[in-house]
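Entry for the shared binder. Reason: the reviewer on the internal report wants the predicted structure included alongside the sequence.
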Amino acid sequence: MISMPDKPDELASLVDASFDHFALATPRIRDLLPLWIDAMGGSFRLGADNPEIGWRTVRLEFARAMCVELIEPLGGSTFLDTFLRRHPQGGVHHVTFLTDDVARAFAVLTERGYAPFGTDDTWRQLFVHPKQANGVLVQFLVRSTYTVPEMTLDEVLAGQGLYGTGVPSP
């Protein structure tokens, strides 16, 4: 076993960040379900559409310890086009860490030579570009205490999840 020294100056420690999930982008969420639900035992947690940006997501939970997020483009969206051109079968799109202080994460990343981007007016999230993170988008997101509405996987895939567009997944 490799012994790792304590690193009190690690970014995650400095901004009290914890790992939340990794996301797999794919042309069709349905194609990933046999592996992630049937073989790996994932349980559907929630799903949503983001019509403004152009993607649908399904979150799967594993023994309440971690989540995998599956994302696909909504019809007519160009959001994942570049990623899927480079990775036609899909692949790891981003990893997400939760924090209570995105502004602090922004400052610490900047101090360390990164160029975080994508912050919004309320500092709910930021990103580190894949070019600075070995090909994977890194997201820091403010922890949320929202209540997840009841829904089923079938409803989400039918476009009837949270913010559903009404357009079924391919």
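Summary line for the report: Residues 36 and 42 are 6 Å apart (CA to CA).
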